[in-house]
Amino acid sequence: MSFVRNAWYVAGWSSDFGNELKALTIVDQTLVMFRCADGALVALEDRCPHRQLPLSKGKRIGDTIQCGYHGMTFGRDGKCVRVPGQDNLPASAYVETYPVHEQHQIVWVWMGDPDQADPDDIFDLPEFSDPAWQAHQGSALHIKAHYLNVAENLVDPAHVSFVHPTTLGSAASENVPVHVRANDDIIVAWRWIRDAAPVGFFQDFGGFKGHVDRWHYYSLHLPSTAVIDFGSADTSLNLAEDDRDAGVRIFALHFVTPVTEDYTIDHWMHLRNTAVGDSEASERMDRMFEVAFAEDKAILEAIHLEEMRPQKRRPIRLAIDKGPTVYRKRIRDLIEIEVTENLGAVRSTFVQHD
Amino acid sequence: MSFVRNAWYVAGWSSDFGNELKALTIVDQTLVMFRCADGALVALEDRCPHRQLPLSKGKRIGDTIQCGYHGMTFGRDGKCVRVPGQDNLPASAYVETYPVHEQHQIVWVWMGDPDQADPDDIFDLPEFSDPAWQAHQGSALHIKAHYLNVAENLVDPAHVSFVHPTTLGSAASENVPVHVRANDDIIVAWRWIRDAAPVGFFQDFGGFKGHVDRWHYYSLHLPSTAVIDFGSADTSLNLAEDDRDAGVRIFALHFVTPVTEDYTIDHWMHLRNTAVGDSEASERMDRMFEVAFAEDKAILEAIHLEEMRPQKRRPIRLAIDKGPTVYRKRIRDLIEIEVTENLGAVRSTFVQHD
Amino acid sequence: MSFVRNAWYVAGWSSDFGNELKALTIVDQTLVMFRCADGALVALEDRCPHRQLPLSKGKRIGDTIQCGYHGMTFGRDGKCVRVPGQDNLPASAYVETYPVHEQHQIVWVWMGDPDQADPDDIFDLPEFSDPAWQAHQGSALHIKAHYLNVAENLVDPAHVSFVHPTTLGSAASENVPVHVRANDDIIVAWRWIRDAAPVGFFQDFGGFKGHVDRWHYYSLHLPSTAVIDFGSADTSLNLAEDDRDAGVRIFALHFVTPVTEDYTIDHWMHLRNTAVGDSEASERMDRMFEVAFAEDKAILEAIHLEEMRPQKRRPIRLAIDKGPTVYRKRIRDLIEIEVTENLGAVRSTFVQHD
Q1: Architecture of the structural domain at C124-331
Q2: In chain A, whose CA is at the least distance from the CA of B179?
Q3: Which residue in the set A159, A175, A310 is minimally distant from C69, CB to CB?
Q4: Residue C266 and residue C141 in contact, taking contact as beta carbons nearer than 8 Å
């Protein structure tokens, strides 16, 4: 299994969740979610422990869910509150619950050991609440591919010149070397393309006429949230690397949610220090992102199909792969830690029940 | 394998079978059926022993079938009567035959050891030929689910309140206990809901204005024929349990035919002691059944998908599960008997051929 | 695995290949093909060795292909000529190449050991360049079936009376015995039907009014090219078997290309000694072939599905099966030889790399 479970994953935007029961799948676990009367979001295992019907096929009654087959009813804490036809409620009559947290209109669910769930660990940026910045939610890209390939692509500036030649990249960057640094939780791959014509995106948004200095900083926060800090500034400014706020700067955020081994959802949005309050600009930017992300989707789905086919040779690694390589190693380490922890947990569960 | 083979299964209504070759599958065995010149129905293994083409892709010639690939021809007894290009007919040139029996315009096929096939064992009811009763063939529900789940649902009165709240059930019955009795061949689960408003079905058909006593008797005849005896009578009559004919009484019959492990066909019809000879009432009743059975289908297909997913916990059993639990045990017993018999049969076959 | 690899297979007609990158699959190997500036065709492994993207999703630049993900670029000899972001070209940066040969407007690819590829081994007939004969390319039949079943059907005259009763065959031939002879590379099954009414095809093309002598010679060239030499002559001529050119004679050619274990493409065309230069006749003949080959396709796909189902009995073999039986044995022998050779090749590869 290749999923990190002790992690917060994005289930959707706040506006995706209302009173109705919503079924979704994260790291191969089916969930039913709804917003309680007090406004809090609840995520329960989406399977009745009796005859396995997904609870999302049932009916919401107050802050409980009644199974659509025999009416077993579960509270927001996952405990069964009613078994039609009998008075006692068996101890095994429960569904799992998953911690949920909303922040900046984004809904996060913790898929691992609930005791380790800490909302302070959730990805955040000061720019979300900075009035000089505009936040705008885009959409969700559904990709028939493994999430590691999706996330890897987000710490890989080298693909931009070839996958997005008309939007985010250009031939000018093809041979510019990529720098990579990594700490425990974040891997950053970046490069500057100095003194080049602006790419399509910044021709449109920056209003640049002459040459620009352009940057791409791909920060991948483990397990799978990416911030792509990209922007341009007039070459005459000779911008210092740490002075990017002085240019036109955009953070494209990608919240990569593993659904199954074959399916991934990428909720994407952006923050920008330009055109603040200009909703028409937001829409226009979404259209450009949609073009670019459809290009990624086509590549990632083709690779996914190819990876299902027999492999005769081990893939080769190139200089540009440093970010992806570090990323995959970090994920393997995280999973190994969890497997070790789980062995302990499973053992103690057995003791408890026997 | 989870099929009982020594059993009569419904292949369809008599009107489904004519001169043309008809392909169907029962307990994972493909069959080709047709009506002979003398009116008798024949069921043969639907695979030419030469190059495996289904015989149903061939051509009927008199009461024989000519294979569509090389013209091998088989009689109604399954024996090869012609091999184009050669004079001798090899002993191995045959297809299996399956006993067929028609009764009350219903076509039954015996899928097991032909020596054990006895038409007297076929499900029957005196009401089929009682002039005070109307028999009416409904339709065939195709369900992407295992037949045990389909049949189990038919000895399970407890689901009615939750799956069919607007047609066959109502909240009044949610907590009414279910009684179960079983003999060797039939499992009966039943309950009475006394002194309650009539459900949708009987508001329409019984013309009841005040409260009624309502009953549900689910009789499941092994392996998979169900009679749902349900009806209503004015509460003021204080009907005795054995006096149900004095009320408006309907037998919904379900002939559950396992096709594959993932597919089941439920041929359904009804008998009723009301509106005899009223074909408009028959049609109207079919429409109501169609609504209700589509509700079952949705639940059963959702469960089937869920049962394919990994299971972390064993499903829990409730008080209302007595009928289904007894049913599954009986089926397991029947299959075990057959496996034991088959071991013997296979052994003697080997002796014969060696 | 059931593919012969040391063989030339048809990839398509010459007109199918132009400047654009064309993806196809032969014996489960994906290929990308294109026509170079000098007119030569190139076939490369369709998978970038870096991140596995099919090269056919990339971009042609001169006679090289640039991968659509990170821009690795490969020449027509499969060697990498560019790795963006680094100067050195690793030795492992290559894709396999496959020998290609065009002849009579047909494109052949060699799928095995390149050292054994000899264009002189490619199937040929003098009639391709005989002015008394007309060559006409038909189309490509895509069949969801194993190629051995497709090819077997092409050395099996006995099926014609039953599969193609209105086009290529008639009841008159049902019991006519089949002769078979085989040498190392070619299996021929044939029969003459003397003094019978002309079949549909020759009623149309031969203009025959009275009885004809009709022949079918099915020559299957290993591994999977078939020549069906069929024709008719007036019975009064009492044609000798070797004098078929004196009648109306047609060679239907089938180039059977195994795609996967479940998919086969049959490129078909014909040569004829009648209606030379008459393109309307060519079209009309294609229409008749299309009817007949659709009949084969229906049979072969039904058999393929049936072969996926459990088998209780071994298929029986008949007198008419001699051609197919010899054919399958030859293929098994060829594959066994390759497996033995490959074991040697794999062993030496390991020595080289360790």
Answers
A1: Alpha-Beta Complex (3.90)
A2: A85
A3: A159
A4: yes
